[in-house]
Write a structure and sequence with these properties.
Blueprint (H helix, E strand, L loop, with lengths): L18 H8 L7 H5 L8 H9 L2 E5 L12 E6 L6 E2 L1 H13 L5 E3 L5 E6 L4 H10 L26 H16 L6 H7 L11 H8 L7 E2 L2 E2 L15 E4 L13 E7 L5 E8 L18 E7 L3 H15 L10 H8 L1 H12 L19 E4 L5 E5 L5 E2 L1 E2 L2 E2 H12 L3 E3 L5 E6 L4 H10 L10 H4 L2 E2 L17 H14 L9 E4 L13 E7 L2 E6 L10 E8 L3 H15 L6 H8 L1 H10 L19 H14 L3 H13 L1
Parallel strand pairs: 8-9, 19-20, 20-21
Antiparallel strand pairs: 1-2, 2-5, 3-17, 4-5, 4-14, 6-7, 9-10, 10-11, 12-13, 13-18, 15-16, 17-18, 21-22, 22-23
């Protein structure tokens, strides 16, 4: 049994901490100043209020499209749900749909962590909104802030595949294990009324309580037996998956558990991965994206102790002064994996077993119709960039509401920002497909593959961290890339493209084969070399790509890929094998072919390394492009 230590071991009694640590300590376990400021007749919260509000699942935002010099910002709140494995019961979805129209901006946003977000909630409507969500079997507690975020799991609702059932079960249990226990949430939003959404597993309750230590008590119980008064140093992300299914981006999590079963599909235990994370900061080399390490294997009886041991290690030793370095990936990097494992084993009181061999990972999105395994069906519905709305011919908001309302089906949000409608009676398949077709929802077989495997964060105008666009521009970017691929004879080619409006990595761009990371207005870092199954991290290829130069910069890369790829090789794998230096050399000498009939069709010619070096030096000295220097030299030689 892992116990909560009374204080972090081997730590100095006084350690420099960030301002936010004091805000958390003064919050009375997430009560203040939110409880007081909520009653004030203002349009927004103070800075301290904003920080504590995050733990309740809300970010304060302002719409930058509506900013007017000299006037107050257009403040509103974004609410994010906590629903492990993406599960949304019918009554909750209908409530969210109602709220989005009554209090929000008439849209819902499916996130990359299998949750829904609501945007545009005014401060004066925040309490009513949250009360409606909670009373409809929903919760936002812990969806944001310095604690465990929404726990992910494969969204496919298979009933005849025990490993998937187990992944969903343990995602829910670990979410419950790591949910804040403060009563402030219900006191503030429901005036103290406690609404129990689901009954917790007794094993989870026992694991969470353990030995309670000397954390402040309330009614004879420890308020936060897992987190203490300061909660975690930063956000903490977990996932549970099954062998071979990488729909959850397993290598990007703080903790990923992989279900291990015997030949009869009975649970044995879990492979454990730890130390992944996407966020970084431009021009801060000490920050970086990192993929998780294989830590070991744990028996099923010890899985909750294992999770607690990892959480306690990060809680006690994670950086609490420089928040840029506060994620657990930096602790693992700083310590090294052996020391990290040793600390976990000390807290558990036993050794971990070696990581067990797994089949190759594969990305799954589960779009289209599938057998559920219990006589019912499920259908994966493509939602472009996760935005559920009614706009023009696309009326996916109307369609989803009608389907959920008429057929009482539950829903699972996918890690790729789409949704799965579950528990469908086969007799209703035709009627549901008719609704989807009527409201402009593209069938999975007709979704362009670049769009199907892409992701983008919301970014502007509401995200306070965004430096440029993401969700609003990626459709145009994908169209331009498809046109370019067609021009180069790569029609039908596909790869994983992801875009964010800042370097924090919400859409996990650092795992993409082609990643766009917001760097400045209308400009992006270009990252290349992730794998199609999201097991290898990409690397930065271009520091600044202006969107107007998209074709100029990408055409040489795609042409090189076309000419030198191995059979069946993906774009990301090609970029790694061919090397960035090789790509840059090719791009330097690449001359785009002229349209047929122009009278000036230009072709690419290879040169020796020695001649290439001379060309490069000449171009640098004259201020000309290498292509121009080469063409002039050839003309002089031939004339």
């Amino acid at each position: 049994m892992v116990h909560t230590p009374l204080k972090p071991a081997d730590q100095p009694t006084e350690k420099k901490v960030s301002k936010l640590e004091g805000i958390k300590e003064r919050s009375q376990f997430l009560r203040e100043p939110v409880a007081t400021e909520l009653k004030q007749d203002t349009t927004h919260f103070t800075e301290e209020g904003i920080q504590i509000l995050k733990f309740h699942g809300s970010y304060q935002q302002d719409n930058r499209d509506n900013r007017v010099r000299g006037q107050e910002k257009d403040y509103s709140m974004m609410l994010r749900l906590r629903n492990p494995g993406g599960y949304i019961p019918p009554q909750l979805y209908l409530t969210l749909d109602d709220i989005s129209d009554k209090y929000g901006n008439h849209t819902l946003r499916a996130t990359t962590r299998q949750a829904f977000q609501l945007h545009g909630i005014l401060k004066k409507n925040l309490k009513a909104t949250l009360a409606d969500i909670i009373r409809s079997m929903g919760s936002t507690l812990g969806a944001c802030g310095d604690l465990s975020r929404n726990v992910m799991a494969p969204p496919a609702p298979y009933k005849n595949k025990p490993e998937y059932v187990l992944a969903r079960k343990y995602a829910t249990n670990i979410a419950d294990l790591l949910t804040p226990q403060t009563s402030a949430y219900y006191e503030i939003w429901l005036d103290g009324e406690k609404v129990v959404t689901t009954e917790e597993d007794p094993e989870v309750v026992a694991a969470r309580e353990g030995r309670k230590g000397l954390v402040r008590t309330e009614h004879g119980k420890s308020i936060e037996p897992i987190y203490g008064t300061h909660y975690m140093p930063r956000k903490f992300k977990c996932a549970v998956t099954v062998p071979g299914d990488n729909s959850v981006d397993a290598y990007t999590q703080d903790i990923t558990l992989v279900v291990i079963t015997d030949e009869n599909k009975e649970l044995l235990g879990f492979n454990v991965m730890a130390g992944g994370g996407m966020g970084r900061t431009h021009n801060k080399e000490e920050t970086f994206a990192r993929i998780a390490d294989h830590v070991g294997y744990v028996d099923k009886e010890d899985v909750y102790d294992l999770v607690k041991a990892i959480v306690f290690t990060q809680r006690d030793y994670g950086e609490r002064f420089n928040r840029r370095l506060s994620r657990m990936k930096y602790l693992v990097h700083r310590w090294g994996l052996p020391k990290f494992i040793d600390e976990i084993e000390k807290r558990m009181g036993k050794k971990l077993e070696p990581y067990r061999e797994l089949p190759e990972w594969k990305f799954e999105d589960y779009l289209g119709w599938h057998e559920q395994g219990d006589g019912k069906l499920f259908v994966g519905v493509h939602i472009r960039n996760g935005r559920v709305h009614n706009q023009g011919k696309l009326q996916n908001k109307r369609a989803l509401r009608e389907i959920v309302e008429r057929f009482n089906v539950s829903m699972r949000v996918t890690p790729n920002q789409s949704v799965i409608l579950c528990d469908i009676d086969p007799a209703n398949k035709a009627a549901i497909q008719t609704i989807l077709d009527r409201d402009g929802i593209t069938p999975d077989s007709q979704v362009d593959s670049l769009e199907r495997y892409s992701m983008a964060c919301p970014a502007l105008p509401t995200c306070g961290l965004a430096v440029t666009e993401s969700e609003r521009v990626i459709p145009t970017i994908l169209t331009r890339i498809r046109k370019l691929l067609n021009k180069l004879g790569l029609k039908g080619e596909t790869f994983v493209i992801r875009m964010t409006g800042c370097p924090n990595g919400c859409a996990r761009p650092y795992m993409a084969e082609l990643g766009f990371v917001g760097q400045a207005p209308k400009s992006y870092q270009l990252w290349l070399g992730g794998s199609p199954n999201q097991t290898r991290i990409a690397r930065p290829y271009l520091e600044k790509l202006h969107e107007d130069s998209l074709e100029d910069q990408l055409e040489p890369l795609f042409a090189c890929f076309r000419d030198y790829r191995n059979e069946g090789e993906s774009f990301g794998d090609f970029c790694c094998r061919y090397t960035f230096e090789g790509l840059r050399q090719f791009s330097e000498t690449y001359v785009p072919p002229q349209p047929t009939g122009s009278g000036r069709r230009r072709n690419r010619v290879g040169v020796s390394d020695e001649l290439f070096a001379k060309l490069k030096a000449k171009a640098s000295a004259t201020g000309k492009s290498m292509a121009d220097v080469l063409e002039e030299a050839i003309k002089d030689a031939l004339d």
